[in-house]
């Protein structure tokens, strides 16, 4: 068990934006030092607002937070020294070269001379940017820019690194490369990483602990395995031939939960998800029960519980349906 003080601790953070938009509604986070902690949630859940407060770029309306032991409101300068931030928007100067960007960032943190050059070379090497070091950043690919962004966040050897949606906008190959890089960083001594993401797969793969954010608060927190393990048995997902209304949904879920094998049934639009001990064995009985209740099933798939199921259980909605835009298919299509 880790007995050291938390690297990040937030208590009951609230934040309302003009127009009465509640971004945070009692956000509580505790991140042990030296781990990758994933804040997972759909667009608009409040992840960026949380990161802004923890990195001293915004003030909460109420609540408290410490990062690396420093209070974000009382001691913002100390917090800034202790953290590295990789924001959603790149902070690199596109006209300057990769090397120049790193040198400037190092100088801002008080590095100079041989120590600065050593650190810059080390980071260029490590993020496979050495060959491109003398080229202006505007000619870099998306993946190279993102790697440079992470290198910029690490120049001054922070204790806590914030990665806000580190792979959004990257193609699958660059995303996989970035995951490997973050995985390596995670092994680095003492570094704590707070990662925000709306990719279930990203959180599942990288984070030792995950907190699911929904409507400005944490709905559930734990290791990916523990969260998935909470869901006993298999998930059976069925697609109905025809959409059903409110009354029909209740009738179908009642018909399914009446079966002894069924732990839980949820119906949304055309989709019905059921939790059972043994998915393959249960399918015939599920189909028969739906048939008796007057519904035709177009397809049925059996899956081990995924983080999507965890989200559905705790937020009461399917992740892919909350997540707007083309990312939904990827985000929902995990395992
Ligand atoms: N400056 C702002 N002014 C008004 N509303 C804002 C502002 N910033 C965020 N919001 C609103 O606050 C809520 C939380 O936004 P936030 O950016 O924290 O969510 P998020 O989970 O990080 O989503 P995303 O992945 O899209 O950044 C959203 O409803 C958003 O529209």
From TrEMBL:
Signal peptide: none annotated. Pfam families: ABC_tran, DrrA1-3_C. PROSITE patterns: ABC_TRANSPORTER_1 (PS00211), ABC_TRANSPORTER_2 (PS50893). It is an enzyme of class 7 (translocase). One of its GO terms (cellular component) is plasma membrane. GO terms for molecular function: ABC-type xenobiotic transporter activity; ATP binding; ATP hydrolysis activity. It is a peripheral membrane protein. Keywords: Antibiotic resistance, ATP-binding, Cell membrane, Membrane, Nucleotide-binding, Translocase, Transport. It is found in: Cell membrane. Residues 8-240 form the ABC transporter domain. Its EC number is 7.6.2.2. Its main location: membrane. The keyword Transcription regulation does not apply. One of its GO terms (biological process) is response to antibiotic. Belongs to the ABC transporter superfamily. Drug exporter-1 (DrugE1) (TC 3.A.1.105) family. This is ABC-type xenobiotic transporter. It comes from Streptomyces yokosukanensis. The lineage of its organism: Bacteria, Bacillati, Actinomycetota, Actinomycetes, Kitasatosporales.
